TrEMBL record:
CDD domains: P-type_ATPase_Ca_PMCA-like. It catalyses: Ca(2+)(in) + ATP + H2O = Ca(2+)(out) + ADP + phosphate + H(+). One of its GO terms (cellular component) is postsynaptic density membrane. InterPro entries: ATP_Ca_trans_C (IPR022141), ATPase_P-typ_cation-transptr_C (IPR006068), ATPase_P-typ_cation-transptr_N (IPR004014), ATPase_P-typ_cyto_dom_N (IPR023299), ATPase_P-typ_P_site (IPR018303), ATPase_P-typ_TM_dom_sf (IPR023298), ATPase_P-typ_transduc_dom_A_sf (IPR008250), ATPase_P-type_domA (IPR059000). The chain crosses the membrane at residues 106-124, 144-165, 390-411, 431-457, 866-887, 943-961, 1019-1039, 1051-1072. This is Calcium-transporting ATPase. Its EC number is 7.2.2.10. Gene3D superfamilies: Calcium-transporting ATPase, cytoplasmic domain N (3.40.1110.10), Calcium-transporting ATPase, cytoplasmic transduction domain A (2.70.150.10), Calcium-transporting ATPase, transmembrane domain (1.20.1110.10), HAD superfamily/HAD-like (3.40.50.1000). One of its GO terms (biological process) is regulation of cytosolic calcium ion concentration. Belongs to the cation transport ATPase (P-type) (TC 3.A.3) family. Type IIB subfamily. GO terms for molecular function: ATP binding; ATP hydrolysis activity; calmodulin binding; metal ion binding; P-type calcium transporter activity; PDZ domain binding. Residues 49-123 form the Cation-transporting P-type ATPase N-terminal domain. Its main location: membrane.
Amino acid sequence: MGDMSNSDFYAKNQRNEGNHAAVFGCSLMELRSLMELRGTEAVVKIQEDYGDLEGLCTRLKTSPTEGLAGAPADLEKRREIFGKNLIPPKKPKTFLQLVWEALQDVTLIILEIAALISLGLSFYHPPGDNTAESGAEDEGEAEAGWIEGAAILLSVVCVVLVTAFNDWSKEKQFRGLQSRIEQEQKFQVVRGSQVIQLPVADIVVGDIAQVKYGDLLPADGVLIQGNDLKIDESSLTGESDHVRKSADKDPMLLSGTHVMEGSGRMVVTAVGVNSQTGIIFTLLGAGVEEEEKKEKKGMPLSTDGAAGINAPGSASLINGRLTSTLNSDLSLLLKKQDGAAAMEMQPLKSAEGGETEERERKKASIPKKEKSVLQGKLTKLAVQIGKAGLLMSAITVIILVLNFAIENFVIDKRPWLPECTPIYIQYFVKFFIIGVTVLVVAVPEGLPLAVTISLAYSVKKMMKDNNLVRHLDACETMGNATAICSDKTGTLTTNRMTAVQCYIGDVHYKEIPDPGAVPPKSLDLLVNSISVNSAYTTKILPPDKEGGLPKQVGNKTECGLLGLVLDLKRDYQPIRNQIPEEKLYKVYTFNSVRKSMSTVIKLPDGSFRMYSKGASEIILKKCSHILNEVGEPRVFRPRDKDEMVKKVIEPMACDGLRTICVAYRDFPADPEPSWDDENNILSELVAITVVGIEDPVRPEVPDAIQKCQRAGITVRMVTGDNINTARAIAIKCGIIHPGEDFLCIDGKEFNRRIRNEKGEVEQERIDKVWPKLRVLARSSPTDKHTLVKGIIDSTMVDQRQVVAVTGDGTNDGPALKKADVGFAMGIAGTDVAKEASDIILTDDNFSSIVKAVMWGRNVYDSISKFLQFQLTVNVVAVIVAFTGACITQDSPLKAVQMLWVNLIMDTFASLALATEPPTESLLKRKPYGRNKPLISSTMTKNIFGHGVYQLVIIFTLLFVGEKIFDIDSGRNAPLHSPPSEHYTIIFNTFVMMQLFNEINARKIHGERNVFEGIFRNPIFCSIVFGTFAVQIVIVQFGGKPFSCHPLDIEKWMWCVFLGIGELIWGQVIATIPNSRLRFLRGAGQLSQKDELPEEDVNEENEEIDHAERELRRGQILWFRGLNRIQTQVRTREGHGSPLRGLEKPDSRTSITHFMTKYSSQPSSPNKNNNAIDSASIYHRTPVNQLLPQPRKPFAQLETTPWQKFHSSP
């Protein structure tokens, strides 16, 4: 079928080829085939067909420097001919399909069959009028026999419609969220010589796109000009090595690949379904449809596959990334997972790479993830309740049948008359219906609904709190977070860099000097160096509002330096115009290994000059000269370096400033240096200046961190900055307090402490470090990942730590994926980081993380509230139905009444209790942790306490109610007798008690005031009143279908009064201390062994499937609901790249698992783990020593080469 659709596609295009070529100089098919070439083949092909890249641009009617003019007619024409940059999403399921899915529910099917049998039998009249029934029956009542069956069918229809509607609205919400995330994806394009940010969907063939470090390419294109560009193509090829791209050797850039280094400009040649990712996707789409056909024919499909297909996955090319719910079977079409594994492992090369990589790949291809805490607990609870419910319902049916048989055939010795068979069968069907009803009531099918509503509601509200949730379960996991590893720059600080101090011409200026005070030669070198040696996309624009601060665009550290140029009354733009980007001879772009950036230009006399900037320790180490007070280079000896560190760099760092050194070097024209020999090129530099850049702490951060600490969450700062700067900022934020016993170390010291002699990471060693660690400075992305993994895998504390991580850089990807919850920065974050994250912080602000914690805890509490309410209803209803059936041969609560109580109260109560807004008090307690049972002892006390009250009332009414109210007894009524007042009072009282208990359920920690904040939740109020109103209608006008007899006002008052008793009884229960009730065990607890082992994925599959089998056995109504949630969660995962579903943030079998517990983690490339010394200080120190006094010689400040100086966290 795939071939079919594609051949149609080609046929159609063939017809249009002629006119494409007429409008533009090349056709769609030409460009498609061009993009399939690589390397020199592509270069040759371009030269043969178009002359050169200029020729290609001319044919596409675009200018390599000015881009498209942007005329709407022209853009429309291009979309028409070359297609839009979208992949059409998979069609959502129709409402009817969802109805059909909801009907697949086993319990509902049993009910439907029973109801149909009951209906059929009620219309069957046996020959001969003599009925062998106990008790007489007049015509009218026999007529009414069909009503119960019909009512059950009707309530089944209600259940199905409600379920389908919920699924439908859920899917709609997800699509809304998806499109919101798509709209946020922008890309830099040159149009009409202006660089603009364009939504990815608006990119057309012929656009000139600017690519830079951290981008995910949104379309295929040909590189026109590039600086040191390296691309990770593993998502398409499965090769993890970065591919170097250049206009003359390999200019082909493909959509869906990541820019790992460098920058450049490309002309877009294929978009949407015609790009390489789009073509694969079209094949995949065809594959999905084929699979669905197979599935319909009943061909075997793996469970994962099925889940993948059911997921309402829509796919679109978000920033060139392929998003769809990939199916484990389909992923075999492409060796995608290999790519995923390889890409993930890239930063962490392992010693015995080969076999681990193999193992890893096998694992990566199984998209299983450790269940989220809540899912695990709920599944477990489901199994427990399911077994109990099944047992109760089976016993009920057996007792009823035996009782009937013994009474009729043994005691009364009646013969079995053939003509009476239908009546006996009708009795058995009635018993069966009662049994099924007990099961229906026993199973809390409102639970998946409560979970979904609660999560969906939270996700919607979290948008307002600047949290864009990409995976539903992340929201709930956040409530259990015990540790947050945060970046510094931009998250804890404002990410508005301003140069405030500088050292130039042998003078340390505490404020930016007057331009006259600086030697003119030094000033010229400084201004030229900063202007040329920074990304040309970084600019400082005039403020939006009058009197506002200037707008910083691009890399913030570079903005700080450009700001320095402006403060020195000079302008960088004329210099950039004079030396445009095309004229830069060679660029060594910034990356986490170099920690510096250098640009080479050719001077008019043919010689070369290289400008460098970077972290001051790193650049100064490479300087052999420094400019003196008149701007001439003088020798810069190691002794001077130590002096400089003591007198300039350390004091700046202690003020919380980031120090950047700017330097240059001249090279002769002949012989031309070998530019690839980086180590020799980046040496013998001449230092121009050291600048201290301030990035102030965000005003709301100290308060937010204090809230976290109160809530039992440890905040750690992981940054690429200098240790002194990091410590100064940590004190300002309140992460460390003077006098505490904590650890502030840098990456080098961290590695020295956690690795053994062979350079392998050992868990025991990490366990000695992480509990006290508060600041990790000069850390590499690998360090961050090692730390997160070490904390998560640690077994030294009884609760497994739940770790949240923030990240913005491309290299933070592995840590974000490994963490339980990954937060990416919405403003400063690269696409790669967003891709790996679970939640995107749209304002890059740490205090939004605290909001996420609050919402996460609220979800957990909402579900506990609902469980407390639900289980009380269930316990009481099951016991009443069971004992009633055993003693009176009939359930006091009829099937339809039970379905009303169960379904409507479930659905509405889940809405009412799941939409409670969070309060600050949620942050005043410690996290629950993985091993705490879902139903705490307080909740168990409440459930049993209220259960006892309700049972006492109901049994009193059942056995002596007729005497109290002076009415006819409803017990032992014949088969189709009319509804009795007696049983109506029982039903009505039962519902009233549930209504008032719903108010009690709003508090689960034993609070006294259950009405607190009730009016802040209008949904809750309207549901309580609404349910009350409907109950009045049912009792007064429900008649035969609901087995109700209208009640007078006095009896109504009694029912309401007994209901209000619930509130008073609630206060009594709150008075009983939990310590008295040792025997109350929590339920739904995850024990250590339920935490799925990370050693063996197959074991993990077994375990999950085993649970599912158990549930099948219990025919659990709501397990499908839970599955649906998981499917939705998967959809959100699918909504990452094609790799997304393959490893989840907290999957224990995650890509980085090859660093198995104790096996090696690679030593960093320069092998400097055997650090001689480091600028770390172990703290058990009094305040006066907090600020670093030890003056260390420069050589010892040396740090790992990973340190990221730009947008370092």
